[in-house]
Prior knowledge:
Elements: E1 14-17, H1 26-35, E2 40-44, H2 50-60, E3 66-70, H3 75-83, E4 88-91, H4 96-104, E5 108-113, H5 116-125, E6 129-132, H6 135-147, E7 155-159, H7 167-172, E8 177-180, H8 191-210
Helix pairs in contact: 1-2, 1-8, 3-4, 4-5
Amino acid sequence: MSERVRWPDLGCNLVAILRGLQPSEVEAVVGGLIEVGFEAIEIPLNSPEPFRSIETAAKMAPSGVYIGAGTVLEVEDVDRLKEAGGRLLVSPNVEPQVILRAGAHGMVTMPGVFTATEAFTALKAGASGLKFFPASVLGPTGIGALMAVLPKGTVVGAVGGVSEENFQAFGKAGVTAFGLGSSLFKPGMSAAEVIERGRRAVAAYHRVFAQGDTA
Length: 215
């Protein structure tokens, strides 16, 4: 088993997924989301000039904020992410060599899984956490059933069809992290609209998790 890079202790375990973000939007959108409480932001590699955006975001982010890439499929892209200053790697699949290379660079990793086989393969490769995707298909019940066989303390995130409206339901199943995509950002949205959505999501997260409403 590879040495694992630990999932960070974030005050708000929400990952902003900014698929389609333009480099010219980075300062306003990423800066605004950090201001309202986001501590993990991914810019998927199928966005326009993603490494340029990641580099800009990484330079402006405080040390406690993790900037990185999503949809990372190749080992070569892990190295490019490192060069851009990224510290977070998210993928839709389990590619052990990608996870291993990211771990060697000290990156936090959250690969996408759907089955117990994928989950254990990812953990064996050293994944920091698991991204159950698409969460809307598995649902809280499906994720909860899979979590019963995972090692205690495994960080589990839900991505895909997730918004503040179902934080509580997934939280009751043991999910502690969420990736917010289209419920937070879509290409063409104004920075103000994204920031307002982000503010609502952060507030909802704290309502559910800080008050123990998942019990």
